[in-house]
Sequence to fold (996 residues):
Amino acid sequence: MRLHRLDVTAFGPFGGSQTVDFDELSSAGLFLLHGPTGAGKTSVLDAVCYALYGSVPGVRQSGQGLTLRSDHAAPATRTEVRLELTVAGRRLELTRQPPWARPKKRGTGSTLDKAQSWLREYDATAGDWKDLSRSHQEIGEEITQLLGMSREQFCQVVLLPQGEFARFLRSDAEARGKLLGRLFDTHRFAEVEKRLADRRRATEAQVRQGDAELLADAHRMQQAAGNAMELPDLAPGEPGLAAEVLGAAAVARSTAREQLTIAHSRLSAAESAQAAADRELADARELARLQQRFTQARERAALLEERADGYRQAQARMERARKAEAVAPALELRDAADAEHRDAARAEARARDLLPETFADAGAAGLTAAARRAAEELGGLESARRAEQRLTELGVERAELDRQESADDDVRQEAEAWLAGWDTNRAELRTRIESAQEAATRAEQLAVRREPTERRLRAARQRDQFAGDTEDAQRQVLALAERAVEARAHWLDLKEQRLNGIAAELAAHLTDGEPCAVCGASEHPAPARKSAEHVDRAAEEQALTAHQRAEEQRTEAERRLGVVREALAAATAEAGDTPTDQLADEVAELERLYEQARRDASWLHPATEELRRAEQEHERRTGIQQQAALRAASRTTLRDTLDRERALLEEELAQTRGAADSVAARAAQLERQAALLTDAADTARVAEDTAQRLKDADARLADAAFRAGFDTPQAAADALLDDTAHRELQRRLDAWQSEEAAVRAVLAEEDTVAAAQQAPADLDLAERAAGAAERRTRDAASARDAAARRCTELDRLSARSAAGARQLAPLREEYDRVARLAALTAGTSADNERKMRLESYVLAARLEQVAAAATVRLQRMSSGRYTLVHSDDRAGRGRSGLGLHVVDAWTGRERDTATLSGGETFFASLALALGLADVVTDEAGGVRLDTLFIDEGFGSLDEQTLDEVLDVLDSLRERDRSVGIVSHVADLRRRIHAQLEVVKGRAGSAVRQRGQ
Fold:
């Protein structure tokens, strides 16, 4: 990697644009970067780092990059860094702009613009630059891939900070490990250690969980075995636990099977004894049953003998009922005929009560003839009924004609009254329309005059307002300008005071034994002291902030004054010199006339609509008047026709209805008389027929009773039984016969008779013996079942424990293997004699390479006296691996690097930094680093050692490298001709480049 050109604008202490030509500086091979404290030497290196990686080293990078902007820059100037370099044979140009809080284009305040990045490559064929990317992420990945280094590695390898390597020489193994791990990216080895430790803990937890489950099964087996099983005295995770649990389970299973065999034998004996007792109990129960059966049969036979008379009476009653059943049909027929005859007689009496007395003695035939005569007379009245209905319709039609005539008279009179005023009304409406049209024309003319007058009035009012605002703005601009001048003078005074006392401010951070940030010396005999009037950085920054705020307020006030003046000129051009009050009076008068004209013009549309509706109404009423005249002529002809037809119908009806009020009344009388006569004739015939059927039924009943053996029909009726009584009597007879047969059968049974002759059975004794035998059998069965369950449960738990032990065996082997590896990589294993962690082991190898590369230059710088060697000895009780010693050729002894003096520490740390740069470069894939920077520390060297160090640095040119030295040492300005000087001033720092 070779740097060609660096352009910075508003970056760090550089308020304007500055350019560094690295090609010119590198032509000499060795160049010096110098300048007073605080001028910005380190900012040049920060700009290189920012261009490459988008951030600066260490604590100088804060927030989102807003602090990179120069406090000396103009508000409108944006911060930008552009770097041109060659890497991996490619000529690239990197441009980066950090976030920028720029002033708003409109209004006050600021707005934040996002960071911008550009990557371009020079095309030698085309002779021009071509764009590659504008993405922050893509550019970062491309640069990291080309350089093969992260930002931290670049800052250690290319920007060699001597102070950090001096601390590296004096630090312990842990601090060295952190730095080397950051440079060589060995966190993957630490991740391996962590992964192995996590794996060991995970497998250990699984093994303990498996052992805990085995112990839990062992406790369950102990409970199932009745606490006869002994548990192993081992904790989860201890070896041999599974074998102990399985052995104890085998003993418990064997004992349980012996107990099961004994329980089977006891159950068989108890079941045999219970079977014998059950047989004896069954025999006793059968004997008692037969004896009780015989006794109950004798008692039932005696009861039947007592009820024999009642049985014979019931048999006789059943026989008479069977005979009476032959007479039952005749009885039912006679009752039906009697009921029918009574109903017919009552119906005949009701029908005769409705007839006149002249028909009281008439028979059925006479009543039928009278009904026929009434029907014939009713048929002759049908034509008279139609004539009477037509007469009624003629009256309705005559009344409707009168109603229509009255309605037409009202309509005609109303139309005539309205038409009488038509001409006057039409003339008035036309006059109103003409007046409204004239008012509308007048309103249009006034509207054209009103609008420009109103614009002039608004402009005049704005003119008056802006005139006052202009005076206020001018006074404010003058006040803010004076305040800005005072704030700038105050800031410059404070800044000058601080620069005069900057030595005391730097001396406040000096520590005995630590190198000075300015000269690099570790001894500080007479540091500067702060005076009572000392100004610190906070006070200066506060004054600068006040100055910038005052400038912003002045600029904003001037901008507002310009805006107000422009508005005043525009308003004056619009309004002219006419006073505002006069323009307001003109606008008010025009507005009054315009509103009056609009009100008058608003009647145009209503008047036009009213005229249109009046013309339509005139046409409608004229038509109504003509139609009413035509209907009146038609009604006169129709009325004469109706009167003639009515006279003829009235004459005909007077002859037909006789004494009745109407033909309909006469027809109703005849219809009712014919209906009553017909009903009476029908009921009379039915009564005669039912009387004859009743007489025939009496004769048949008397004959049936005599043949059945009864003296009278009433006797036969009394002997009949209804269904319920018949069923009840038959049930009693059947029950008596069944009981008699059952008793005879029992008394004839041989085993029952034989049992009755024996002694009574003793059931209590037999039941007690059977119950005792059953309890003994139940207890034996319970014991057998418990023993069987115990065997089953032990077999199940033993099988599960055996399966768990088989599954746990590979896991335990894995745990042993992982535990050994984790202890070995963590440095806690007995096999790891030096107690070195894996990451420390890898870093120790890298440190050996760094020490070897550093020794080549250290021997030249120390005239062959010192050699750096790596030591893996343990420090006290700690771990070994990252020790670093120096071998003194003058004494032949090896000692710790912390014993070196200030100058020796500098060139040792310089050699270490250069060696580390070589190793990291090789580690990054052999990317060639053609430009290096070395920061401070040369002030601690004597003249001879300084020559030797410069010779070593000058030898780097043999590898076509250029080395930039950052230092305050004045002697270096004489020795090194190619120089880049950073000069500070009130307006910011600037760079000067000279010599080759």
Remarks:
- The two ends are 21 Å apart (CA to CA).
- The mean pLDDT is 77.
